[in-house]
Recover the amino acids of this structure.
């Protein structure tokens, strides 16, 4: 697969292919980087709806080829609406600072084998109550479903009442979700022990974890309960994505409806959250403060906030929220005596009933960004890329 730093950003594309010629020329895809930063494997998305096919051609047969080297890139098809027909083709280019590269949409030789390992993976986990868990080669997350909520409400041990986002601290690139759950099924609590791959030692409770949402009314924050149902969209070598639904919830008299579209791409430390929300003009996105002894960084003008815990279980842990600069209005270090409710919040605009942001982390033991300085440098660069996405054009 791929090495180096990999960042995620979906770029909408329009592809016009001539249908008047029996022998169609390859369509060139030009990807341009306008930043003075290297861009490694940000995700480009080609829509089926924007591709005109000649007679006998199938969208599913296309691959992406480097126009210069003729190498076939790893790619992934996604059926976004789950109607049985793929809608988009994903690939991840690499670009030097202030540069552009060209790729071709071609029908590849069937003998050319791609890496199809599902590094980007997610699933519903009924064997552990009803978690929904997702990962890529860098990080892993989970959140909690209705059975876990009902157990708490009924006083049954082992439940979890939280719409916060939990972290699994992995330090290997291969998938660990199924392995850790299988181990835990044999002996409860096994995934809390590090056997060399990492562990789950992150406490969420009713906090926002890393990227959970809330609505602020006056000086108080109101939150939803667990997700009510889910829909897995895709897993694969480049992306996993899914949808979580929530029951309408009350924010001091305001009825909030919320649906989370979440994706995680190969190589990124950040999950992308697209929240479809009604009932509020602003949504607050939080990072748990745990014992309130970490270091807060509020960089609202650059579109990010971060929290660094320098004494995290004999290690160190950094978390962050990133959004478009114009969408991040303010931030607040909210500290309360109420258990698990102390969070660092960013206030984000709701645009056309939608909020988009990124939430992620870096654990020192993973050796990805082992210091606060390196983590915050990465956040700043990631923010620049979010605010200046790759430009993609198509021509023959």
């Amino acid at each position: 697969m791929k090495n180096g730093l990999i960042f995620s950003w979906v770029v909408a594309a329009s592809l016009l292919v001539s249908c008047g010629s029996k022998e169609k020329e390859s369509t060139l895809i030009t990807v341009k980087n306008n930043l003075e930063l290297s861009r490694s494997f940000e995700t480009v998305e080609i829509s089926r709806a924007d591709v005109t096919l000649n007679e006998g051609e199938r969208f599913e047969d296309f691959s992406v080829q480097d126009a210069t080297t003729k190498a076939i890139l790893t790619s992934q098809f996604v059926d976004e609406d789950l109607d049985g027909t793929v809608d988009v083709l994903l690939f991840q280019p690499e670009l030097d600072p202030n540069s552009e590269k060209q790729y071709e949409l071609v029908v590849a030789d069937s003998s050319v084998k791609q890496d199809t390992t599902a590094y980007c993976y997610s699933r519903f986990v009924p064997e552990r109550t009803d978690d929904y868990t997702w990962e890529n080669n860098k990080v892993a997350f989970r959140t909690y479903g209705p059975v876990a909520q009902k157990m708490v409400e009924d006083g049954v041990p082992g439940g979890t009442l939280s719409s916060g986002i939990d972290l699994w601290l992995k330090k290997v690139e291969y998938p660990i979700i199924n392995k850790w759950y299988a181990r835990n099924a044999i002996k409860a609590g096994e995934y809390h022990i590090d056997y060399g791959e990492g562990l789950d030692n992150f406490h969420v409770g009713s906090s926002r974890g890393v990227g959970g949402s809330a609505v602020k009314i006056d000086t108080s924050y109101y939150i939803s309960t667990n997700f009510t149902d889910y829909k897995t969209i895709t897993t694969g070598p480049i992306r996993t994505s899914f949808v979580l639904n929530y029951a309408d919830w009350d924010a001091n008299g305001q009825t909030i409806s919320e649906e989370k579209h979440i994706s995680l791409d190969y190589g990124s430390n950040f999950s992308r959250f697209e929240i479809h929300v009604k009932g509020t003009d602003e949504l607050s996105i939080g990072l748990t403060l745990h014992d309130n002894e970490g270091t807060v960084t509020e960089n609202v003008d650059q579109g990010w906030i971060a929290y660094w815990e320098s004494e995290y279980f004999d290690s160190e842990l950094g978390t962050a929220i990133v959004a478009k600069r114009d969408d991040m209005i303010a931030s607040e270090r909210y500290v309360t005596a109420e258990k698990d409710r102390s969070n660092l919040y960013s206030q984000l605009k709701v645009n056309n009933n939608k909020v988009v942001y990124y939430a992620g982390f870096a654990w020192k033991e993973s050796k990805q960004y082992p210091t606060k300085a390196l983590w915050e440098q990465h956040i700043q660069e990631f923010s620049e890329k979010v605010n200046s996405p790759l430009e993609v054009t198509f021509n023959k």
Remarks:
- The first helix runs from residue 146 to 153.
- Residues 246 and 348 are 19 Å apart (CA to CA).
